[in-house]
Write a structure and sequence with these properties.
Blueprint lengths: L5 E4 L2 E8 L2 E7 L7 H5 L1 H5 L9 E3 H6 L13 E3 L2 H18 L5 E4 L12 H12 L3 E4 L5 H10 L4 H4 L5 H7 L2 E5 L19 H10 L3 E5 L13 E3 L6 H14 L5 H7 E2 L1 H9 L9 H8 L3 H11 L4 E5 L9 H15 L8 E4 L28 E4 L3 H6 L3 E5 L2 E5 L4 E5 L3 H4 L3 H7 L5 E6 L4 H4 L3 E4 L8 E4 L5 E5 L12 H12 L2 H5 L4 H18 L7 H7 L1 E3 L11 H5 L13 E2 L3 H6 L24 E5 L21 E5 H6 L7 E6 L2 E10 L6 E3 L12 E2 L26 E6 L1
Parallel strand pairs: 6-17, 7-14, 8-9, 8-12, 9-10, 11-23, 12-13, 17-18, 18-19, 24-28, 25-27, 27-29
Antiparallel strand pairs: 1-2, 2-3, 4-5, 4-19, 15-16, 20-21, 21-22, 24-30, 25-28, 26-27, 26-30
């Protein structure tokens, strides 16, 4: 192991100081730009009192097995047992459920953020294990951009524009005159990237672009979404009105003769039907700037000035992931693409559209893709999959069907839940509902590093290692580095890797070879890296062999020869590089969506009011936004010294009208439940809006969460019947002083 080894977390690369087998200190890798406080908290995290140090079984389940019922979950004591006992119990229960019911009664849950390493990637491991067993109920999509993933497949033919492809900042800095950020460019989001990163230079890109003359416009309810150095104009819109603003800007470009009709004709289909809608020929309401200003509750002159700005020069349009995490969230993304089509700059340097520049680090960083290894899966022969955000619906309405992406999906009856990686009692919505329904499965098993809210509500808890307690290879296609992540310390307590846990279970179930292929950790890493080397060779890149990578610790991947420009190939040669849509073009009217006949999803970009629409809110009711925390990753690091009391950030004038002062203890409530928080006042949040960061570990109890997790308040309704994504950003709350 190197004298001062480098390893990786989702919040950045770090140098480790280890002495006598103890992780003493961690600091950001030199010149990486990672957040020093988040990196410095790693030793405290690893040795936290909240670590699960040996296997545990819920008291009544240990006595009565699956007949114990679920009412004692989160209430009864957890009894420590040996690894052999725990693995025997789990293997026997998997076999019982599979043989008594069917493979779909086995639900394998995960959410993929447990490790930046690609081999010890919990979601990959649990899927591979249950694939070896013969099948299971899986989850499809994600909470981050579930609605976008579906709508982009219909409009662009793939979800790459949100999952990995983006015009590079190099191109933006050199070519973009106006950069319009719907949802903003919040710097705190640049601390994290799935898979980690060696570079955290997004603030540098923004400052460089501004120095080069790029004018930034941020459309968001919060000025926190404006990065330093951008000198951005701020349009403090009402939440949920972004789609209306974008459609009105599109109509304004058409009315001014700014629409690029040549682009619409060559690269798009359905533009005529969209233009009819914008003109009001469908519903009698022209989508004018006046119409949008009223819905957004912003001065008309601000939208007129923005229309003037985008009517000239090179324009880059972007939207954060958060904007599609709302009822009708698909329409914000579809509308943004439509506006970019009307401007006609898609595929040009510094122009067009992109998603996620304000959502995580390294979007548009310009790295060579395809060289970070992945653990191969085994398929799901006898299983099924449900939309990831429909977990509670599955528990409440088993053996029923829901529409999803044009088909009907059967919700199975999950008798056994096995969760590895992730904390559904953090990232799901309407947590009190989930807590009630969590009692229904016969058995719940959790592989977990910490006593999270989910682990405390399990029947069997198997202690898992953290990434510093095993070897791995990490990285992301958005960043130009691959890291060999050396094991820094021995496992804490009796913790085992997910791979070791599933290997023990596979041996007991007779599926050992199917799961492991006869390979141990080191052999798997070599096999996976060989696949990366093959990919590098096809790209003409000389990649180090496995032993050299281990010795190097970090490999700097050669950058692409040219800056990435989203859809440049399609623009340059649409006949040779058609999109994977029925028309081969960008679909501004989608016949396929029209054929689904979904009442809540028009076949073209359109605006619809949400069920909990701020424009109709009663006095004393606020639109709740739930951004990522400042120094956490979801709920990770919330058990360290970085923790702070849950805060509800609100406009100072709103607070004064409600008789509230900075520091007051309050109860924030919605129709789903309540949670406690501390008031923090600001002039940087528009009136009628409050913000509560996610992160606190849900405590629950009689409809009141003492920890202050805002997902105790948010609705579990879907974005639409098309995507069934998370709509957490559609939530109205009241606030009362305690």
């Amino acid at each position: 192991m190197p004298k001062r080894p480098v390893s990786l977390t989702h919040w950045g690369a770090f140098e480790a100081e280890v002495k006598d087998g103890v992780l003493l200190r961690t600091r950001p890798w030199a010149n990486s730009g990672a957040d020093a406080r988040m990196i410095g908290a790693i030793p405290e995290l690893v040795y936290s009192d909240t670590r699960v140090r040996q296997p545990h079984v819920r008291e009544s389940w240990l006595t009565h097995r699956h007949r114990a019922g679920g009412s004692g979950r989160g209430v009864e004591p957890m009894v420590p047992v040996s690894w052999d006992t725990a693995l025997d119990l789990v293997a026997a229960e998997i076999a019982r459920v599979r043989d008594t019911y069917c493979h779909t009664a086995l639900f394998a849950g995960s959410y993929g953020w447990s490790s930046a390493g690609r081999f010890h990637h919990a979601r990959s491991q649990i899927r591979r294990f249950y694939g070896a067993v013969g099948g299971f109920t899986d989850q499809t999509g994600n909470y981050s951009w579930g609605a976008a993933q579906i709508i982009l497949q219909h409009v662009l033919g793939s979800a790459e524009a949100v999952s990995g492809a983006a015009t590079s900042w190099e191109s933006i800095c050199e070519n973009t005159n106006t950069f319009v950020a719907f949802g903003g460019l919040n710097p705190k989001n640049w601390h994290v990237t799935s898979g980690g990163a060696g570079h955290h230079h997004m603030p540098d890109h923004v400052r460089r672009a501004a120095r080069n003359g790029t004018r930034f416009v941020v459309v968001s309810p919060s000025s926190d979404d404006i990065p330093d150095g951008s000198e951005a104009d701020w349009i403090a819109t009402r939440p949920g009105a972004d789609t209306a603003i974008i459609l009105a800007l599109t109509q304004a470009m058409v009315a001014r003769g700014r629409a690029d009709l040549g682009f619409l004709g060559r690269y798009c289909t359905g533009a005529d039907r969209l233009l009819d809608y914008l003109d009001g020929r469908n519903d009698g309401q022209p989508k004018t700037l006046e119409w949008a200003a009223a819905l957004a509750d912003v001065p008309l002159k601000q939208l007129q000035a923005l229309a003037d700005r985008i009517a000239q020069g090179r324009v880059m349009l972007t939207a954060t992931w958060s904007l599609q995490r709302a009822q009708h969230g698909e329409m914000t993304y579809w509308s943004l693409i439509a506006l970019a089509c009307v401007l006609g700059q898609i595929g040009l340097p510094g122009g067009g559209f992109g998603f996620g520049y304000g959502s995580l680090n390294a979007v548009g960083h310009g790295a060579t893709k395809g060289l970070v290894p992945q653990l191969p899966g085994l398929g799901n022969a006898n299983g099924t999959a449900i939309p990831v955000a429909r977990l509670a619906d599955m528990l409440e309405h088993p053996n029923t069907q829901i529409p999803f992406n044009g088909e009907m999906v059967q919700l199975p009856e999950a008798k056994l839940i096995h969760w590895a990686g992730g904390n559904p009692f953090h990232h799901a919505q309407d947590l009190f509902r989930l807590e009630r329904l969590w009692q229904r499965p016969e058995t719940i098993i959790v592989n977990e590093q910490f006593w999270t809210a989910t682990a405390r509500r399990a029947d069997i808890v198997l202690p898992a290692t953290t990434s510093v307690e095993r070897n791995d290879i990490g990285g992301t296609s958005r960043d130009p580095h691959v890291f060999f992540m050396p094991q820094l310390i021995a496992p804490v307590g009796q913790a085992r890797s997910d791979f070791a846990i599933f290997t023990g279970l596979a041996q007991r179930l007779g599926h050992d070879y199917a799961y492991t292929q006869g390979l141990d950790e080191d052999a798997w890493l070599q096999t996976m890296w060989a696949q990366s080397c093959d990919a590098a060779e096809r790209l003409g890149i000389d990649a180090p062999d496995f032993d050299t990578l281990r010795a190097m610790n970090v490999w700097s991947v050669p950058r692409p020869d040219h800056p990435e420009i989203l859809l440049a190939q399609y623009r340059n040669a649409p006949s040779r590089h058609p999109l994977n849509t029925p028309s081969g073009k960008i679909e501004l009217y989608c016949e396929r969506i029209a054929s689904y006949g979904l009442p809540d999803v028009p076949p073209h970009p359109a605006w619809s009011a949400r069920g909990e629409w701020p424009g109709d809110a009663a006095a004393g009711t606020y639109a709740l936004l739930t951004p990522q925390p400042l120094e956490y990753l979801h709920s990770q690091l919330a058990q360290t010294g970085l923790a702070r009391p849950a805060e509800v950030v609100m406009n100072a004038d709103d607070a004064s009208a409600a008789g509230l002062q900075d520091g007051d203890q309050v109860q924030v409530s919605s129709p789903r439940g309540g949670c406690k928080a501390v008031v923090r006042l600001t002039q940087g949040c528009r009136g009628g809006v409050v913000c509560m960061a996610t992160g606190p570990w849900f405590q629950g109890g009689a409809g009141m969460d003492a920890a202050g997790n805002p997902n105790a308040l948010t609705s579990d309704m879907p974005t639409s019947t098309l995507s069934q994504g998370s709509a957490a950003q559609s939530c109205l709350v009241t606030i009362a002083k305690l």
